Amino acid sequence: MTVLHPAPRTASNEGVLDRLTGALGGMIVAAREEYGEIVITVARDRIEDALRLLRDEHEYQQLMEIAGVDYPSRAERFEVVYMLLSLTRNHRILVKVTAAENTPVPTVTTLWPVAGWLEREVFDLYGVIFAGNQDLRRILTDYGFEGHPFRKDFPLTGYVELRYSEEDKRVVYEPVQLAQDLRSFDFMSPWEGADYVLPGDEKAGTPPVAQPQTTEKPSQTGAGDKANAQAADKQSAGAPATKDDGKAPDAPAATESRPKPEDSESEDKA
What we know:
By secondary structure, this protein is an alpha/beta fold. The protein has a domain at 16-131: Beta Polymerase, domain 2 (2-Layer Sandwich). It is built from six helices and nine strands; from the N terminus they run αββαββββαβββααα. It has a five-stranded mixed beta sheet. The chain starts with 15 loop residues before the first helix and ends with a helix.
């Protein structure tokens, strides 16, 4: 029996980039194929038009995800990445726009209602503003959270911490107070050639050995003829018990075979 699939099992990128760049025209800022994926960067103010064209005329029906990327050294430090899936062609593409901290990106909730949740996530974690989103609130961080956790300039410890106060009978916010400064650890193994004293070892009070020494005679290791003679002594060495004649005890007699039950014999005969 032949099973017909509405979409190819493996989709090729052959001709896709040329076809899409020709259709998008002046909306495109850059387009390339890398790592087996089609990546198209469009003008920020044309993102809604570009995604509508890709959805309606090129069968990229589904918005799978919206992700954010932060490049602090760039003038427009943020990238917003739209991941589209064509169910009929079994093909995926990435569409990008760039934005600065105070530059709004047009919402695409007019094309996919699910984009409202995805844009809220990018806003919460990166601080990207989506113009036209009617419910642009935080979605992952707590109420009253300050800052955006996925920015690369965000402090590792955060700004505030919260705890439940038994006195006030509510959750209170307090400035973060570290018990000690952030420590940097050196994971270099001393057996691999560290030429310094590891932190904490200076408390041991044992100076480093100037010249390693090795044993030169058996007496330095506790071995020798005297030690061998003591080991040969059965009593001192704790040897297993023996008979008076010095021979090892006899092994126990073999267990006698037990006769089969009558029921078993009858079953064998049957």
